[in-house]
Amino acid sequence: MTIYVYFEGRFVPLSEAKVGIMTHALHYGTGCFEGIRAYWNADEEQLYLFRMREHYERMVRSTKVLKIKLPLSVEELCDITVELVRRNGYREDVYIRPLAYKSTQEVGVRLHGLDDGFAIYTTPFGPYLEPEGIRCRTSSWRRVSDAAIPARAKITGLYVNSALAKSEAVEEGYDEAIMLTENGHVSEGSAENLFIVSNGRLITPPLSDDILEGITRDTIIELSREEYGIVTIERSIDRSELYTANECFLCGTGAEISPVREIDRRPIGSGRVGSLTRKLQSLYSDIVHGRHPKYRHWCSPVYQKVTA
Known about the structure:
- The longest helix is centred in the N-terminal third of the chain and has 15 residues, at about 75-90.
- Helix 2 (about 50-65) crosses helix 3.
- This protein has seven helices and 17 strands.
- The chain starts with a strand and ends in a 7-residue tail after the last strand.
- It is globular.
- It is an alpha+beta fold.
- The chain has helices spanning about 25-30, 50-65, 75-90, 160-170, 215-230, 240-245, 275-290; strands at about 5, 10-15, 30-35, 35-40, 45-50, 95-100, 115-125, 135-140, 175-180, 185-190, 195-200, 200-205, 235, 245-250, 255-265, 265, 300.
């Protein structure tokens, strides 16, 4: 089976999409990306891309930080993504990775005066973290501050910071890392936003605590308010608050909603998946698979239905 990607303005087989070893982004991390999920609904035989437009709108903001010009509008990017996924004929959950990058093959640290490249590839993708709960540790690596590399932009070079934290956690027997800001407040996971439930309140770090402006984060804030009447509090969280929380979960396009059962060898709440976390998991799954009419506008179908 030939897998197609979008590369240099056209659809080509994956085997033909190549970049040179001198490519600027490879050496200096001068690229930005998105992660978009598509969910297979077997009953409808349909694949739904979740909040695709919002992902590309965020990518536009990221490219402004890196002085990258996208070759297409948000609408055109959405159309191309649907066509790419359709051409590959998936009948399973899929991850879509758009990548904008400095493509000049030249040595020199800068952003100005360089050519820009753009590509999209797709791959089958299941759960990123254990949906029944994970064990985390607070990382010795601090989240890079907005004054150094802005976390609100999905810049490829920033993820070295995440990779250091993730490997430290996994190699010490944990599933994921929780990163703190330079001043010691809770920021996020290695590649996920974080929420806690404390005394009936849903709390998450603010954008000013060096977090990604997460689309799943935004989804949870809206769902909690609209479906359960819970208004999310956005404020700084101290590390010790993690230990005393009733519930904690990480969230993101890859991680979806991942309950945290333990942090730094301390059980969170009962040490099991909390009631609000469980409700959000179930609701989120229904929505992304296109099974909830109220939120169907977030889901973009890939395949055209054949009428009799």
